[in-house]
Design brief:
The protein is mainly beta. The chain is built from four helices and 36 strands. The chain has two domains: 66-285 and 380-470, Neuraminidase, CATH 2.120.10; 317-366.
């Protein structure tokens, strides 16, 4: 019997760690493909959890993703997209696009609403100090099922709320966490931290929120009555549910993912904390090197674990050398791209690139390969849930590496298979790597939005329809 324990796989482990404060005992199996698990905690007996052992062999799905319409690259001004930072659907099938690029020579966030026929409903958004105007936003957006739009703004320290027609409705204060914003020296770092927050729809009245990187404050006494404050990055593993109550937002920690101890932030191959909201208000998430998707109910209790048994990929010296070589290649490509786009980056950045010394360039490139390594490569690279609640689990390429979103020389998403699984534990099949798409958002009726690049490397948002097995 194989048990997933923390981030490791063992054939002798006595317990399955589902979170930092919970473990489960093995109970005799009731069926050949499931294992019942009863939590062994000091808090008493809880509802049994089940581990579903999914088939090891892939069953390839023959899928075609029919194109419905596309946004971007068209003749109309509203279709000129530059940097898509958020995508969502409402229950009526309307599409919402957040574009944080340049519009009429002015850089700022614009939100575009498109009806199910691919026609413009409204385009809005501008910078400023007034209600409904951006001060400092990273471009994140959550679209609630009824069509309300939520945009966090670290400058206002509030959420902007807009109606389905784009009209501003109200601002809701972002609650302070752990005394943040009380120390004026930490205000700016906390604002930068907020810009990286990931949000997504999580129900009619709230949404899910996660900080991939949490700033950690370290205070050190340097003399009597005087201390030095330093701020550094740390793992963010809390998934929060944000609910609006009047002028304020209430924040609840829904689940807390496992995080490795003694490992610095930025270490290569550390298991990602991946999550997807479910229609019932629960969540599916992955936080380990192994293939173990945890299904939590709306209260955050893990009820089910979906497991596929794949061989571990240990990080050898050969893997380290190959990874560093790929990062260096990607860093050189990034540098050439920045030089080619120096005019778009602004005068300061353009001059800095043009005047960079050979030594500065070399140090920049070397930073791509100065990394520490985790001991094995995670098997799950991304996780999504369709509008109906079916899971898409993107596996790490068998001979490649996990995709990365930050860092010099970060690796993109190489072709890789996607498993289609129900939250009840039924393996539907696998979309082959050559047929797989990277969804930006799922909508009703099998709709899915995918970001593509045209021949001029301009982003185009293509709305397709999923075949029944993939929904």
């Amino acid at each position: 019997m194989t048990i997933v324990q923390g981030n490791r796989t063992s054939s002798e482990a006595p317990a399955l760690t589902l979170s930092s404060d919970r473990a489960v005992e093995v109970v005799p199996a009731l069926a050949s493909d499931t294992r019942s698990l009863a939590p062994a905690t000091s808090q008493g007996t809880r509802t049994a959890q089940e581990v579903f052992d999914l088939p090891v062999e892939d069953r390839i799905l023959a899928v075609e993703f029919e194109e419905v319409y596309r946004v971007g690259g068209g003749p109309d001004e509203w279709e000129q997209l530059t940097e898509i930072t958020g995508v969502g659907f409402d229950a009526a099938g309307n599409l919402y696009v957040a574009d944080a690029g340049t519009d009429a020579g002015v850089r700022g966030l614009k939100i575009i609403i498109v009806n199910p026929a691919g026609e413009l409903v409204v385009k809005f958004g501008r910078s400023g100090d007034g209600p409904g105007e951006w001060r400092e936003t990273g471009g994140q957006m959550a679209v609630l099922p009824q069509g309300r739009i939520v945009v966090p703004d670290a400058g206002h320290w509030a959420y902007h709320v807009f109606g389905p027609d784009g009209d501003f409705e109200r601002m809701v204060r972002i609650p302070l966490r752990d005394g943040q914003n009380k120390d004026p020296l930490l205000t700016r770092p906390k604002m930068i931290e907020e810009r990286n927050r990931v949000i997504m729809a999580g129900g009619e009245h709230g949404f899910l929120s996660h900080l991939p990187m949490r700033l950690q404050e370290v205070r050190r006494s340097v003399s009597p009555g005087r201390s030095l404050v330093s701020v550094g990055p740390g793992f963010g593993r809390d998934l929060e549910r944000v609910v609006f109550e009047g002028a304020d937002a209430r924040v609840e920690v829904l689940v807390t993912g496992w995080a490795p101890s003694g490992v610095s932030y930025g270490t290569a191959f550390v298991p990602k904390f991946l999550f997807a909201g479910l229609p019932d208000g629960g969540v599916a998430y992955s936080d380990s090197s192994g293939y173990a998707i945890k299904i939590a109910d709306p209260a955050g209790e893990v009820r089910r674990v979906l497991h596929r048994e794949f061989p571990s990929r240990l990080v050898t010296e050969e893997v380290r050398e190959d990874y560093r070589a790929k990062r260096m290649e990607a860093a050189r490509a990034e540098l050439e791209d920045m030089r080619a786009r120096s005019d778009e980056l602004g005068q300061v950045a353009g001059r800095a690139l043009a005047g960079a010394s050979p030594g500065a360039v070399e140090r920049y490139l070397e930073s791509a390969i100065k990394v520490e390594f985790y001991h094995d490569i995670p098997q799950v690279d991304d996780l999504w849930a369709t509008w109906e609640g079916t899971l898409w689990v993107r596996r790490t390429p068998e001979t490649g590496y996990p995709s990365e979103s930050t860092g010099v020389g970060k690796l993109g998403k190489a072709p890789s298979p996607i498993d289609v699984i129900t939250v009840e534990g039924r393996y539907v099949g696998t979309i082959a790597a050559e047929s797989a798409i990277i969804p930006s958002a799922f909508g009703p009726g099998g709709l899915v939005a995918v970001i593509e690049q045209d021949e001029m490397d301009v982003p185009v948002l293509v709305v397709r329809r999923l075949p029944e097995p993939a929904r």
